[in-house]
Amino acid sequence: MKVLVLGGVAAGTKAAAKLMREDRSCEVTVLTKGRDISYAGCGLPYYVGGVIQEKSGLIVNTPEKFAALTGAGVKTETEAVAVHPDRHAVEAKDLKTGEITEYGYDKLVIATGASPFVPPVQGLDLKNVFVMRTPDDAIGLREAVEAGEIKRAVVAGGGFIGLEVAENLAAKGVKTTVIDFAPHVLPNFLDPELSEFVENRMAEAGIMPMTGVSLEGVEGDGKVEKVLTSRRGMKADALVLAIGIRPNTGFLEGSGIEMFKGAILTDRYLRTNVPDVYAAGDCAMVTNRQTGKAAWSPMGSTANIAGRILARDIAGKEIAYPGVLGTGVARLPGGLNAGRTGLTETAARAEGYDVETVVTVVDDKAHYYPGAGSFIVKLTADKATRKLLGVQVLGAGAVDKITDIGVTAISLGATVDQLAVMDFAYAPPFSTAIHPFAHSVNILMNKLDGELETLTPAEFAAGAAEGYEIIDCAIEPSLPGKKYLNLTKVDGEVPGLGREDKLLLVCAKGKRAYLTQNRLKFYGYVNTRVLEGGTTFNEIEE
Question: Which residues pair with 29 in a beta bridge?
């Protein structure tokens, strides 16, 4: 069987390598536009910051090594320009010579990836305008920084890549501003209140976020000197474009292959609507396993999983890909990590769920262990079934473990009641006796059961605390000008507080406020609310 693979980065090379392991008799050829294959696209920002020190660390495989390891052939600097399903052929251009060659196939895999979106604004031809898609992009930016050419930079785009580039530029001493047209950074990845928390941490770290701002151009004499935005111009020595990516599918025009907004539509077996043509990676759509709807998931993880399954399907195994949950994890500016899986509250409500949410601040390991910190966790669950729908987590520690537990739980349809009693690993250097994930689930269960009554951070920011008296419930007084209430002294009616009074209980994280609410309820106080996330997450005005 002759299999032609278009694209040599993640999905393409994974499909080729796995197919050769499944069926060594296959004749597999990879055509790729670039000079490199299997490069570490997700590692590019970390080369800019010097975390990855050597250029060679970005190249997972050379064409020669890949061919020797797998038995698949590789032709670099060869760009597919047309697909002819009627005769099972692809036309490809040799970028060195300009020669067009036709390649036949029995099965075709399209894994051509995506390219950075470059907006139609003036000045992008100036020196020190960068994108971040290939090793050459990262090498060029780092060389300019280390040559002393860049002291101030603007990163256009507040998604993963933009924030990772910003963090690494700042680590190299570059004064960095991030702009984004969306109301917040990490739009559609986190709910707004968590994105705002990220923005505040960015500002504290000296990386200024400017949201609700569009890029309007660049000015300079031969090189970047000013970046123009819809709000104001900013002096800068460089502009990094991380606005987004677009699938590399223009060459498929006239092929009959169905697409949505430029991304190839596939079924559960990664097949297109055209016989013998498959697609995977950033150029293709997959399925959201919660909603059943088509989803674009331009992630290295998705590309590798889909490429592997696709290869097994071509080999006759008929294995369905159940789809994605929107899972992601990233290291952000300000020493903060972020993770998410499943539906955010915003997305869950848009899908018609009646949800309950909670924002918790929980220890990430035993509080007495050196280096202990906190996770900020937001859980979203369906009220009717009590099934977990989504997890969002911020913290300096291993947010991926909270995220990955969420992946498992949502994939298996677990309820919060099942999750609360799971036998999670514990030792002081790693976790807490009640795992931070289970701790957060317990808090959500208390809320679902009516035992915990709260104001969420989003409700608090929207003014829902109007009419409430803020009561400081911390271990020691911490809110100037607010009445302080010591939990250990509450053993009946509290002088100065009426049982009908509307009281908003606030502590550092929310736990002590909950304990205070529990005791006050026993003594007849009927209008108390706990501020979720406490002063760790919320700003309390004096």
Answer: 4, 73
